[in-house]
Amino acid sequence: MNRLYPTPISSAIFILLIASLLSACANKQPIHSSIPSTHQKETSSIQLLAPPQNSQEISDLLQLTDEKGGLDIVLDALQRLSNESPTPLKEEAAFRRIELLLKNHYPNALAEAKLLLQKEPNHALAAYAHFWIALWWQSQDIEINTELSSATEQANMILDELTQTLRHPRLTRELAQQALALGRTESPNASHEYAINWYLAAAHIDTAHKDEWLRAAASNLSLQQLLSLQQAGMISPQQDAMLYSHFSRLQLMSGNIENLQTLSNILSDNAPYLPLTQKIKRWASGDTQDIYIGILLPLTGPYANFGKEALNGIRLAMSEQKQGNLHLYIEDTGDGVDATIAAYQKLNKQSVDWIIGPLLSKHTEALLPYLKRNIPIISLSKQNNLAKASPALFIHNVAKNTQAVFMAQKSINQGLQRMAVISGTKQSEVNEAETFANEFIRLGGEITSNIALHDNTLDQRNILNDLRENSDDEALLEELLSDLALFSPELNLEVHMPVGIDGLYIATSGKKVSELAGQLAYVDIRNIPILGSSRWMDGHLLDDRGRNLSSARFIQHNTNYQDTSNFLEKYREIWGQGQPKNLFVIAYDSTRIATLLGSRLGLHGYSAIQAMHDTEGFPNKSGHVYFNEFGVGNKTFKIFKIKRGKLVPSS
User: Fold this and answer.
1) How many helices (DSSP H) and strands (DSSP E) are in the chain?
2) pLDDT tens readout for residues 290-320
3) Contact, 102 vs 110, CB < 8 A?
4) Residues 106-109: contacts with CB within 8 Å, 24+ apart?
5) Residues 576 and 500 in one domain
6) Is residue 455 part of a domain?
7) Are both 60 and 101 inside the same structural domain?
8) What is the distance between the alpha carbons of residues 234 and 268, in angstroms, rounded to a whole number?
9) Going by DSSP bridges, is the β-strand pair 646-649/639-643 parallel, antiparallel, or unpaired?
10) Inter-residue contact 52 to 125 (CB < 8 Å)
C-alpha cells in the first residue's frame, strides 16, 4: 500500500507514544557516548569487556546538553564534580567533560585530554578517550609545514589514537568495532609506520579478519622495518608466522630474492626448526626451473589492441624475473574460434607448462572440450562461470561481475543481512546486479527487491517508493498500528516505518547514481550503505558533489602501485606517463603467478593446479586474488567513499 509520509508533528507524537510504551521495560542505560551504533558481526574471539555504566548523577547531567545553554551548564557541573567529588565519580566526570570538549571543539580540548590520559591511563574510559581524540583529529583541517600531505598527517594522528584504543587493557566490544571501522577508512592514507602499527593491533583484536589485516601490514613493510619490529619484541616468527609468510610471498612474487635470503639466514639462526623457516629457506634458495608459457591472445583483427595491451603486461612481468630459463610461445587467436583451437593445439605440441589466455570469452568457451587436465590455463575472460567446466581452467579478471562478488562478500562480513538491488537497462548492468544478488543469497543474505530502472526516464521516484515499501516489516507494522489504535484511537496518524534494508547495491553509471541520490533521499531511503562497482567511475558521480551520497561505498580501480618492485616506474620508462590499463595489469599479474609457481617453486601439472587453489592466495597489483574451488579468481579491491566532495579511501 502507498503510505503518505507524516508531518513532523504527527511523527513526534508517534515517536513519543512508542517511547512511552518502551520506557516501562527499559533496562539500565549504558554509557553515554558519541560513538554511533553499528550493525556488525562479532569482530573478535578475544575476551573484550562490556561497556562501563554511567553513574545516575552524570547520566542526568548529560541529558541537559541538548537544551539551549545546557552545554555550558553541564561542563561547569562536570568540572565541579571532577574537582570535589570522591573517587570514582571524580574521574568519571573528568572523562565526560573531556568527551564534550572534544566533541564540541573547545579550545585546549586536545591538551586537556592528553593531560587526563597521563593522569588516568588505565581508567575504564581511557580507551574511549583515545577514540574521542581520533574523532577530533578526523574533524580538523590540518595545515602543516612538513613533507607529508595534510591527509597523511591527519591519518597518522587518527591511527595513532586508534592503535592505542585497540591496545588498551580495558577495551570494550563496542569500542573495538567502532575503532576498526574508522581505522579501515583512514589506514590507506597513513604513513607506513603508523599503518603497520595499526594493522598489527587490528589483527590481534579482529581475529575474524586477521589474515586480511596481516596481508595489509605485510604490503607496507620493508625488510628493515620487519627486522626492527622483531628486534623490538613487537613480532616474532613463532607468534606471527602468518605475517612473515605474507611478507615473504610478496618478496618472492616481486623477485626480491636478496631480501628472502637475508630473512632466511636470520630465521635459520633464531628459529631453525619452524616450518616457516624451512618454507622461506626453499623460497630463498634462488633455484629456478625452466618454464614454458604459452600465450593465447588476439594480435590481429578487431581485438588486436587489447591483445597487444595484455602481451605488454606479460612481457614486463617476464623481464623482471632476471632468469634465462623462462620461455614464451605466443600464438595469435585473431577473432576466430577455429584459430583459437588451432593455436591451443599448437601450444600443446610445444609441451608448454602453463597457458595465459585466451582473452575473449567466446574463445575460452570454444576451448573447453579440448583442455588438457594437467596444463593450467589462466584465462583473462570476463565470464567467471566458464571456470567450472574444467579443473585446469582459472579465470582472472577485474570485471564488474567479479567486483560485485567482492562487494557481496564484503557486505556479509560487515553484518548486512537484507539488501535491495537496482540495475540500469544495459545487459551488463543487469548481469552485475544478478551476480551481486546471487552471491549475497548464497552467503545467507536476503534480497528484498531486484528492480531495473525505467529506460530513458529521469524521475525514478515511483519505483524507488515501491522498493522502500517492499522493505517494510509487515509484522512490526501491524503491531505498531494495533498499539497506535489502542493508545490513541482519536488520532489519525500515518505510520512511517524505518528503512527495512541494511543496504542498497546499484549497478549503473555514476551519472545515473548521481541522479538517483536525491530521489533516494526524497523517498526517505537514507543512512544506509549504498554500494557499487567501478562502473560508477564515469566522471559524473560528483555532479552534485556527493551531497546525498555520504553513505556510498564503491570500487575505484586505479591503484597507486606503491611497492618494492617499482612497477609504475618500470611501466613509465617504456610507455611514458599515465596509468597502465586494467588488462595490462591483469596479464602482468597472471604471468607473475605462473612464474612463481612454475619457475621458482618448480610446480607443474596437477601439482601446479593444486597450488593455484592455495588459500593464502596471491598478492597482486590488481588486488589480492584467491582462486576458489571452481577456479574463479576472487579479488580484493580498494573501496572508496565521498568526503567533502572528493573521493577518498574507505573500508
Assistant:
1) 25, 14
2) 889 999 999 999 999 999 999 999 999 988 8
3) yes
4) 109/136
5) no
6) yes
7) yes
8) 19
9) antiparallel
10) yes
